[in-house]
Amino acid sequence: MRSGLYRILSAAALLLLIAGCSKPAAIVNGEKISKKEFNKALDNRMKVMVRMGISADKASLANTVMHELISDKLLMQEVKSRKLDVPDVDVEAAVRNMEVISGGKDKLEANLKQNGISKESFRKEVKKDLLIQKLEETLLPDSAVTDEEVRNIYDTQPQMSVTPERVNMRFIETSSEDRANAIAADMKKEKLGFDQEAAKLAGDKDVRVSEYGWTELVLGPVIDKALNELKPGETGGPYKGGQDYYMLTVKGKEPARKLKFEEAKDKIKQLALEQKRQAALMNLLGEKMKEARIQTF
Asked: Do 124 and 209 share a domain, yes or no?
């Protein structure tokens, strides 16, 4: 009798354990956000914060991630209700653009693997972002910003018509300080130019080599300071940016300048339209939050 009762109680405890493990992190209008999805999103966010050298409280970060997942769920439900879609060709184009930004397909895949993200999951995230962007675009027509508004913005908000200082630069990036120092030493010993060293490192999976490109000084205080100090034709480093180390070279610089109205008007209109659409999207999200049936566990 005792052994039979023990087996029954053990089975009941196991069922409760299974039920607890299968409980979602949240339910939004009947659709679940799994604990696996939540924990993975939180873990990925923590990794990004550490990589950027930013300290974060996990509890408050968990609240932020949960809010973002609920927001995304509500927006995707709205996308579905409006029957919006994006063609596969647009998704593939966005993925290829991310490959270019990451320094190539291999580098992107290595970054995804390092963060425990499958290629299929990444593609789904890209498509989700495009769908939310499409939803945003449906909220207001292009005519939502008038010519009078554009002129007023140009006259009263000078920062909207100023092109910031830009630098045409190239970098070699590695996560290892020793490797960064070895690259700098090799360049000095072999008397190699930056491009020659970059060519030697092509195909090295532990090093990321960019192409030349124009960038604004928004890459972090250490890197921005280095780029500001380097003159065209000069190479410097290694510099520590976030959790990684960089060798930098500068090819050219453009100072900040005020654009004439005819040069600036299209850019101002696009920025103003984006701001209005983002505000409309946030208003829509706020309404959906109020209406939604949301449970968190």
From this structure: no
Q: Do residues 141 and 208 make contact, with C-beta atoms less than 8 angstroms apart? A: no
User: Can you give the pTM of this predicted structure?
Assistant: 0.69
Specify the 3-state DSSP secondary structure of 284: helix
Indicate the number of domains in the chain.
3
Structure tokens at 150: 């554009």
* Angle in degrees, 0-180, between the axes of helices 147-156 and 261-291, rounded to the nearest 10: 110
Q: What DSSP state is assigned to residue 201?
A: T
Which residue is it, tokens 């005020």?
258
- Is pLDDT of 150 > 50? yes
Q: Tell me, yes or no, whether 99 and 220 share the same domain.
A: no
Residues constituting the chain: 297
Q: What's the CA gap between 190 and 170, in Å, rounded?
A: 20
pLDDT for 57-84, tens place per residue?
888 899 999 999 999 999 999 999 999 9
Residues 6+ apart with CB under 8 A from 110: 205
> Rounded to whole angstroms, what are the CA distances from 29 to 122, 171, 264, 265, 282?
25, 47, 44, 43, 19
The secondary structure of 80-94, three-state, reads: HHCCCCCCHHHHHHH
